Amino acid sequence: MDILNAIVALLNFVIIPATAYGAQLALGALGVTLIYGILRFSNFAHGDTMAFGTAITILATWGLQAAGVSLGPLPTALLALPVGMAATALLVLATDRAVYRFYRVKKAAPIILVMASVGVMFVMNGLTRLLIGVDEERFADGARFVIDVRSFREMTGLQEGLALRTTQLLTVVIAFVVVWALFWFLNRTKSGKAMRAYSDNEDLALLSGIDPERVVRMTWIIAASLATIAGVLYGLDKSFKAFNYFQILLPIFAAAIVGGLGSPLGAIAGGFVVAYSEVAITYPWLKIAGYLFPGWQPDGLLQLLGTEYKFAVSFVILIVVLLFKPTGLFRGKSV
Amino acid sequence: MSDADSTFGNRGNRDASVVNPHGRGTIDGSRKSGPTGPGKAGDPFLIGENMSGGYGRGPDILHDCTIAVEKGEIAVIVGPNGAGKSTAMKAIFGMLDLRKGSVRLDGRDITALNPQDRVKAGMGFVPQVNNIFPSMTVEENLEMGAFIRSDDIRETMEQVFELFPAVAEKRRQAAGELSGGQRQQVAVGRALMTRPDVLMLDEPTAGVSPIVMDELFDRIIAIARGGMPVLMVEQNAQQAMNIADKAYVLVQGANAHTGTGQELMANDEVRRTFLGG
Amino acid sequence: MSTNRQAAATSPWRAPILFAVLALLFILEGTVRNSMFSGSWNTSLAILNMGLISAITALGVNMQWGYAGLFNVGVVGFLALGGLAPVLVALPPVEGAWAAGGPRLLIALAVGLGTLALAVQAWKRLSGGRGLAVMVIVIAGFVLYRWLFDPAVDAIEANNSARYGNIGGLGLPVLLSWAVGGVFAAAAAWAVGKVALGLRSDYLAIATLGIGEIIVAVMKNEDWLARGVKNVSSIPRPTPYEIDLQQNPEFVEFAASWGFGAAEASGIWVKIGYMSLFLVVLLSIILLAELALKSPWGRMMRAIRDNEVAAEAMGKDVTARHLQIFVLGSAVIGMAGAMMITQDGLMAPTGYNPLRYTFLIWVMVIVGGSGNNWGAVLGAVLIWFLWIKAEVWGPALIGLLTSPLPDGGLKEHLLDSSAHMRFIAMGLVLLLVLRFAPRGLVPEN
Predict the structure, then answer these.
(1) B235: distance to nearest CA of chain A, Å?
(2) Contact between chains at B4 and A103 (C-beta distance less than 8 A)
(3) A101 vs B contacts (CB less than 8 Å)
(4) From start to end of A126-209, where are the E strands?
(5) Which residues in chain A touch residue B30, judged by CB atoms under 8 angstroms apart?
(6) Which residues of A touch C214 (CB under 8 A)?
(7) Domain B44-122+198-207+229-277 has CATH 3.40.50.300
(8) Do B4 and A36 make contact, defined as CB atoms within 8 angstroms?
(9) pLDDT tens across B133-146, in order?
(10) Is C35 helix (H, G, I), strand (E, B) or coil?
């Protein structure tokens, strides 16, 4: 029984939250890695793109709620999500046309694009603030739990409860579908292969008749959609606060680099590696240890690091991976 | 080097966490093609005639240079280092700003076309380096070669695999993992996938071993005997002339000698200067 | 194309004219009172002083970016770390804190560092089973560290926690802390650079981004260090206090002779004091940096920056040089951080926002002119002025633009959020400079 309790506690406090968080990071990292692979720079504006997409989705959600539309047990935000994705895609396409294209056509050094993305970050940050302000917004509605603690206890008779929030389950399901669709697109369709070809060898892609501008447009649309989905899922799971989306840039970059920049598969693996480590290292293991070793009474919480240091975890993992495997877990384009 | 490059120099370009130099392009893909015109009567199948020009606003590299290839022939461009061999081929392919001269293919003047449109017009070009998509499989490489085609490409792909049985076995492997010779085969195969009217090879044997080189030459002969004209730049003048129906010796961007491979090999001056006696 | 145009336009008068324009802006701010300027010398000097601190920060970044091409996106961390120095150096000691856990804390930190050093040595020296050995060392070291560290921290934080709960300072002169701030930041930079620059191609950007976040997190959460988010106030000043000046009849008389009231004059006097100190530091750094750049060392740095491959082929140790300049630049940033905390008299770690303290500094460097020290100073003071004034000008502009609109929700919303316009404005300034004058206002010669 104690072992079962320990497993339930592990699921409840570590595995479920970390899986949801990992899926969110993976979606964010996929966007970063695609832009790195195809446009050849790290997009510092990605966090703010996520925030912008989420802000639009929230506004649309409020509109739907005001109109009395709802999805029953599912959050209304799911209906508003396509609006957010479309608006974000339009914004990044406009940004590309106004900012990045100029340097791309001139074959400017990629570092200029990084600098430009800092400028874009400021503008998008300001736009998001204009749209929705800097306060925390909660926009999840519908059923809060798929399984709640009490009914789980009644169902199983275990002492330890298990809660599975709707948003967590949704995150994992949506992330799975999106990732599957993306891989199908990249590996099975002509357009997707053209994107990979462009990432591999720009000149040869051009000489093969692939339109570079079309590849770039597709990349931005996909990256914007991924960013919006990641942002909305993160916001549903926790809450929306513009600054948090800026801060999440570090774990997202860490995930993309740990996996190997430019490798979509790596981005997913990296997202989960970072998420599991973050949660496992900042979780107080006292309760689980109590079930496993009933006689043992440690005086601490058995927490390796306080939750406020979760960013330190992404950083340490990043450093360790880079020291031993400079190209990331899956061989990326860097180096 | 663009403006902004000269501004920031090499700053930050070593930082792999922000910039990705891998596979960066150098060809200006935004250049629009001009109209094509009629060819001249009695033209060879492909001819770059009286070409003069250089890269961008740089000095001229080619001076009144003429290169032509007839159907079913192999034409080679040879010459000492820095003679402008690759430049002449790039000029025919539209990667150079021609000040003078014209390029005509199959009765059409294509001087104003950009490289992408020349591919559509029937040129198959194999660059000297970076001529494959390393992370994609052999099959995907060929598929990308046929990107502009909307019909069924399976037959062409099988023909390529028949021509290069060694890479056929590795069709599901990433092209970047193959040996140097096999990679060249993939590169040639990629160019063949458009079913071009003429195949242009820029030093296909650079950096491969002698055995692989012989095999590659065999394949190229087979392609030409199949009816497709082949134009290639070669470093190994001796071998190249052996298989050439026509050879162009360039010196400092201008035609020095022209003739069949046999003729030029018999020419004392050519032998002394380029073939080492 | 634009470079040529810009190069043609670059005259030796360019920088002096731009600096004169900048000075004019500050004079207007100090004298003219209308909807655009405050007409208060106190405000003008306050903006200038913070601008000078930004300028020193920008100089540090410019050393790294302009001289060596290193992309540091953890400026906020080095700035925050430097800010720790006034707290630890200049504050008077906290009674009982040292006795409560000081030595144990120091031992814990030494054990922590020792563990890392030992792990590195083990990795280098051992051949077989070194992975296991390193893991054992790290785990054992971590357990020992936590066993020493946690009780010490608890004891210190329990010591008069309402007022202190921190380890306290050394009671030394605050000016000394500026140098210590530089040392702190340099030490952190060395550790980061050693790891991130030593790899085959470097990963400095992401590493600095990470360390920046971590340093700020430490400052927010380690209450024993500087009381965390409970803030430390009343950090000693190198200048007189306003209240003392106001009570000094001689000063009041002196102020009156200039036509100022005592309250206003005391503020101005204190700010001029800070300004002088900051200017001394700023000019010394520029002098040293320019001398260094003209020395053989500087020529080598530029050679490496312009062509790393060639420099490496000539036997220059590029990584070591990069590490050197990264540490030096970070030291300058750390010093600026200490100066900022000294001026504010307050350590409030929640204020360390990367947008403001990392990326705005980058806007300053790019706008000013990468690689040019005077450009960095000009860009920093100018951008800082605009950043502050955008708070005033933004609403005014929006008010003007929306005046034809009917009163209602949209107009109100736009007016309410007009303060956020400055983010958009800064982004646009950066994008426009990158596009039309990528070499900045004062290009490198």
Answers:
(1) 23
(2) yes
(3) none
(4) 145-147, 164-165
(5) 105
(6) 309, 311-312, 315
(7) yes
(8) no
(9) 999 999 999 999 99
(10) coil
Which amino acid is it at A317? I
Nearest chain B residue to C196 by CA: give it: B15
Asked if A126's CB is within 8 angstroms of C421's CB, the reply is yes
What are the structural domain ranges in chain B? 44-122+198-207+229-277, 127-195
Dihedral angle, C-alpha C25, C28, C33, C38, nearest 10 °: 50
CA distance C300 to chain B (A): 15
How high is the pLDDT of residue C253? Answer: 87
Contacts 24+ apart (CB under 8 A), A269-273: A269/A329, A269/A330, A270/A25, A270/A26, A270/A29, A270/A328, A270/A329, A271/A22, A271/A23, A271/A24, A271/A25, A271/A26, A271/A27, A271/A28, A271/A29, A272/A18, A272/A19, A272/A22, A272/A23, A272/A25, A272/A26, A273/A317, A273/A329
Do the chains contact at B4 and C438, CB–CB below 8 Å?
yes
Contacts of B143 in chain A (CB under 8 A): 190, 193
Picking from A150, A199, A221, the residue whose alpha carbon sits closest to that of residue A334 is A199
Per-residue b/e over B208-239, b at no fewer than 16 CB within 10 Å? Answer: beeebbebbbebbeebbeeebbbbbbbbbbeb
Q: Which residues contact B177 (CB under 8 A, 6 or more apart)?
A: none
> B181-226 pLDDT, tens per residue?
999 999 999 999 999 999 999 999 888 888 888 889 999 999 998 8
Question: Which residue(s) pair with B198 in the sheet?
Answer: B123
Q: Which domains does chain A have, with CATH numbers?
A: 2-324 (1.10.3470)
- Chain length of chain A: 335
**Contact between chains at C69 and B11 (C-beta distance less than 8 A):** yes
Cα of B184 vs its chain's centroid, Å: 12
Please name the CATH architecture into which domain C2-93+168-436 falls: Orthogonal Bundle (1.10)
Q: Which residues of B touch C308 (CB under 8 A)?
A: 10, 14
Rounded CA separation B112/C209 (Å): 49
Residue B260: exposure state from Cβ atoms within 10 A (0-12, 13-18, ≥19): middle
Q: Do C199 and A127 touch (CB under 8 A)?
A: no
Q: How far apart are CA C324 and CA C310, in angstroms?
A: 19
**Per-residue pLDDT at B14 exceeds 60:** yes
- Domain layout of chain C by residue ranges: 2-93+168-436
Chain segment C329-352, per-residue pLDDT in tens: 999 999 999 999 999 988 899 999
| C337, containing H or E segment | helix C318-344
Contacts of residue A124 in chain C, CB cutoff 8 Å? 427
Nearest CA in chain B to A118: B18
CA dihedral B102, B105, B108, B114 (to 10 degrees): -70
pLDDT at A125 over 70: yes
B8 CB within 8 Å of a chain A CB: yes
> Within 13 Å and on the Cβ side, how many CA atoms surround A192?
11
Instruction: Name the residue in chain C with its Cα closest to that of B11.
Output: C69
Chain C: touching chains (3 or more CB pairs < 8 Å): A, B
Measure C406 CA to nearest chain A CA, in Å: 19
Q: Would the CB atoms of B15 and C201 count as touching at under 8 Å?
A: yes
Contact (CB<8Å) B130/A209: no
- Asked if residue B3 has pLDDT above 50, the reply is no
Determine the average pLDDT of the residues in C5-17: 69
DSSP-derived letter for residue C406 is P
